[in-house]
User: What shape does this take?
Amino acid sequence: MTRGGAYEHFRHGNKEEALVDCCKCFESTMKVICTKRNWPYDPNRATVSELVRILFDNGLIPPYWQTHIGGLRSILESAISTPRNRQGGHGAGAAPAPVIPDELISYVLHMTASTVLFLAESEKSLP
Assistant: This one.
């Protein structure tokens, strides 16, 4: 997350924008890793779930750890993108926008930062 990104949006009360920027950061990190490693994906159509699958399939996360921490895939797929989609990523139409609790934004900001750091450090350790 860059200066002026998700955290700055959150600080200024722009909660929807903070969620959207978290998802963009998470997705961009995975695309950078896939590109750097020459792991094929469609840069214009790849979804978060597909990118996570590619990272697992290519050994970014070791098989023994996938078994031990079975929930990691679910966290990577849903903790960032689901709140963004449900709370900030899509227009509300005629219905009033839901109030996004600060604790949700804070959680997603921290989860995004932790996940991005984890992925980047994991990528460095690959041969």
